[in-house]
Amino acid sequence: MKKEKQVVALLIALTLTGTLFAVTRSSKATPAPSSKIRRTILLNFKAEATDADVQKILKDVKDTIGKLKGIHNLFIGRQTNEHAAFKYGISMDFDDQAALNAYRADQEHRRTHNQYNHLIDQAQITDIVNE
User: Fold this and answer.
1) Which of 9, 70, 92, 120 has the most CB atoms in a 10 Å sphere around its CB?
2) With contact defined as beta carbons under 8 Å apart, do 90 and 46 qualify?
3) Do 48 and 26 reside in the same domain of the chain?
4) Are 58 and 120 in contact (CB under 8 A)?
5) 119 touches 45 (CB < 8 A)
6) pTM (2 decimals)?
7) Which domain holds residue 56?
8) Smallest Cα–Cα separation from 92: which of 57, 123, 65?
């Protein structure tokens, strides 16, 4: 009889342990998908844009965009592959869609875009959501 009680107690303990394990495992929060967005802008400037013009544009863009809330990992510069279709690039990460929307509406960003747009020959913009 004593041995039977021990077996029953062991089965109850194992059942409780298994139940506890299942409950804690299923209650762990699954990570939410990231809301970060990476924007990459590829550029070619017109022939009349001097190297000084290009450097001024890149500096102005860096100074303007670099101050905006919700933007990180700003990279601005010349393409390293001489055979690439685009010669310059800008890349930045946004915290979320709200940060991207704020960037699009920012008056300083709009000013910079409008001030230098006449010197841009080609541009390609890509927004990638981190999944």
Assistant:
1) 92
2) no
3) no
4) no
5) yes
6) 0.72
7) 37-129
8) 65
**Block residue for tokens 């070619």:** 44
Q: Are residues 48 and 20 in the same domain?
A: no
Cβ atoms within 10 Å, residue 17? 10
Looking at the fold, whether 48 and 69 belong to one and the same domain comes out as yes
Same domain, 65 and 3: no
Cβ neighbours for 7, distance < 8 A, ≥ 6 positions apart = none
Structure tokens at 90: 């800008």
In a shared domain, residues 1 and 47: no
User: Which amino acid appears at position 87 of this protein?
Assistant: K
Q: List the structure tokens of 18.
A: 């298994």
